[in-house]
Amino acid sequence: MREQLLHLLFPHVCLVCQKLLLPEEEYCCSACKETFDPFRTSSEAEDALRQTVVSHFGDHFQFERAWCRYQFHKKSALQQVLHSMKYEGIFNLGKSLGRQLGEWMISEGDIGDIECIVPVPLHRLKKTERSYNQSEKIAEGLAQSLRQPVCSEFLVRKRYTVSQTGLSAQARQKNCEGAFLASKGVRGRHVLLVDDVVTTGATLAAAARALRASGAEKVSLAAVAVAAKE
Ligand SMILES: [Zn+2]
Questions:
Q1: Domain total of the chain
Q2: Domain of residue 11, residue span
Q3: Separation of 203 CA from ligand 1 center, angstroms?
Q4: Which pTM does this prediction carry?
Q5: Ligand 1 center–CA 35 separation, angstroms
Q6: Strand pairing of 116-119 and 155-157?
């Protein structure tokens, strides 16, 4: 908390170690950034996401393609950075992570016929508590790199789900069932669904089901990080 407050007051200080940032550094110094655990290739990332979802929900990975930049470890510098984004309202950090994710996706090869970028929505009540949706910021950064529009209105959360922290995979699945509603705007489109960190994939699976039910032709996935197997 103290670190995040410091960052709001002194934006030129590393979010993790509080050293002064160099002009080319953003939010986090290169030494702290080096401790992040990036995937070497997009196919390695896609495999990790697939394994995460399949290990929790059996063999139905419902995504056309899937991209993810980092492996997420507990108590890591990345966790500290993502926490700042989520709870401390450092808006442009999400955008910056999204932009970097998009640039990496393009550098890794053809991203296919993605037509719109849809962030996993927060419920209206939660949005008021937190004042913004971090996935929407990541989606905005992705939109800049991928040159496709953000269509937040295509997916809404119709039910206020309880926090998933500490819930088992089954409990998470139950918590998310029927929580989303997609608009007819997705009909026939290839949608890129965006989240910050994938833990079991319960939220994403429920969101993807809603998009499909409203006629989305393909649903792909982009996330900043996926929980590493500890
Ligand atoms: Zn640092």
A1: 2
A2: 1-34
A3: 31
A4: 0.86
A5: 10
A6: unpaired
